[in-house]
Amino acid sequence: MRRAVQPLSLCLLSLLLLSQLCSGIKWLAISRTPSLLHVNRTQQCKQLQGLVSSQVQLCRSNLELMPTIIQAAREVKKTCQKTFTDMRWNCSSIESGPQYLPDLERGTRESAFVYALSAAAISHTIARACTSGDLRLCSCGAMPGEIPEPGYRWGGCADNLHYGLVMGSKFSDAPMTMKKSGSLANKLMHLHNSEVGRQALRDALEMKCKCHGVSGSCSIRTCWRGLQDLKDIAMDLKTKYLSATKVVHRSMGTRKQLVPKDIDIRPVRANELVYLQSSPDFCSKNDKLGSVGTQDRQCNKTSNGSDSCDLMCCGRGYNPYMENLVERCHCKYHWCCYVTCKKCERTVERYVCK
């Protein structure tokens, strides 16, 4: 006889399904797509991990764009982990997708950062792909309408930020526009933070120039609008992460919206990251909260920052160990044109948290 499913099991099952529906960053799992797989047939769209039905449809109608989106997912993971390498939370849980740990599912400030970075990265990667000629659907961005200063002229190939924002937002926001996309509060939070990421990308558009003139005199400069590197945008978002605002979903007038929890006399600002749930301190392992802890994490004994052994190890102390490094040394330039180096060994002392 088949055993009846207990009510508690049904409840847990419904919670599991809800958590899966809430996640708008499941698409980052396509970063695991084998590099040998060329997405050139619509049937392959269903084989990509983490895509919701509307993203599968976007894939089918924009096959040429998929390698760029896969590259964007890889950039998000790499950039997030590098940006937080000196923090207790080091973005390691981003590798668990498409079934994310609670630190990225519960509406925390960590999820706020990842959503913002994901939205910025996908538009950034598409904009750069237009410039490099990797996409037939787009080309260089439009030249600015204003007249440049004397000695400057518009030219070159600008990053196509407009196209990147249009296509990137269609793809990254698709899960949050579905009817079954979790609670309205989570949906509003994710959409807001994604837009914060795109605004950080807009702010990262700067003038880049190349000199022309006799003997490098730079008598005239050819200039275009180009984006900063994604790592610089991530650092801007990290600053916003550190000052993120906790919000609640509350009735304001005729509808509910997100308002700051402690200072609800003002609306949420368009350029601030917001979160609904407080984060743990990430000192100890706690699967229910998505904390992997800091045991065995490397720390810096001489630092006063977040990577210091006192802060990283949460007062538990640390263990030293010796590491042998092999480095290039005694390099010599030979005319013309190569460099030869020797290999030198040195021993350094490292520290890991207890």
Describe this structure in words.
With 354 residues, this protein is an alpha+beta fold. 34% of the residues lie in helices and 21% in strands. It has two domains: 262 residues, no CATH class; 54 residues, Endo-n-acetylneuraminidase fold (2-Layer Sandwich). The chain has nine helices and eleven strands. The strands form four sheets. Strands 1-3-2 form a three-stranded mixed sheet. It has a three-stranded mixed sheet with strand order 5-4-6. It has a three-stranded antiparallel sheet with strand order 9-11-10, with no helix packed on it. It starts with 6 loop residues before the first helix and ends with a strand.
Largest sheet: 3 strands, mixed
Any idea what the shape is?
A: globular
Structural class: alpha+beta
Low-pLDDT sequence parts: 1-22
Radius of gyration: 24 Å
Domains, number: 2
Number of strands: 11
Name the average pLDDT: 89
SS element count, helices: 9
* Strand content range: 15-25%
Proportion of residues in helical segments? 25-40%
First-residue to last-residue Cα separation: 51 Å
> Could you give the order of the helices and strands?
HHHHHEHHEEHEEEEEEHEE
Oligomer class? single chain
Largest sheet, spatial ordering of strands: 1-3-2
